[in-house]
Write a structure and sequence with these properties.
By secondary structure, the protein is mainly α. The chain is built from 5 helices and no strands.
Length: about 150
């Protein structure tokens, strides 16, 4: 199928704009993690997911129609390439930041669970009858998949 340059230009501009917006969102989220404002990320998570889903769909449409890309002016193609390169660089940094936050969070949960379990096991001692007093039988649950 052949595409006219006007349609191709409109599609590439839309995808370039979307890529820029998604890049800005990821930069904001990375900055929020770096400045210990993870609650800001949580507040905008739905918007980021929506942008990511739209980006995935638009990218898949462009990949399925290579003639659309070929029909666009080279300046529009170069703008999309630059936006995509910036997006990929920010995405890599964002991925490392999110992984570090997850690792820290899981480590904190594990440490707290170990401390609680250790505190429960200690100091049960003996009762008035000389028998060992029963310890706290409540379980500590740690979900390793959290």
């Amino acid at each position: 199928m052949t595409y006219d340059p006007t349609t191709a230009t409109a599609h590439l501009r839309r995808l370039t704009s979307l890529t820029d917006r998604l890049t800005a969102r990821l930069e904001m989220e990375t900055d929020a993690f770096a400045t210990r404002r993870a609650h800001d990320v949580a507040a905008g998570l739905a918007e980021t997911q929506d942008l990511a889903n739209i980006y995935r769909r638009e990218s898949a449409q462009l990949k399925a129609a290579p003639g659309l890309l070929a029909a666009a002016p080279s300046s529009e193609r170069m703008a999309l390439i630059k936006a995509t390169e910036a997006f990929e660089a920010v995405l890599a940094i964002h991925g490392r930041t999110v992984e570090a936050a997850r690792t820290i969070s899981e480590g904190l949960v594990r440490t707290i669970a170990q401390e609680v379990a250790g505190a429960r096991a200690m100091g049960t001692g003996y009762g008035a009858t000389g028998h060992a007093a029963g310890g706290d039988s409540r379980a500590v649950t740690l979900n390793r998949m959290a």
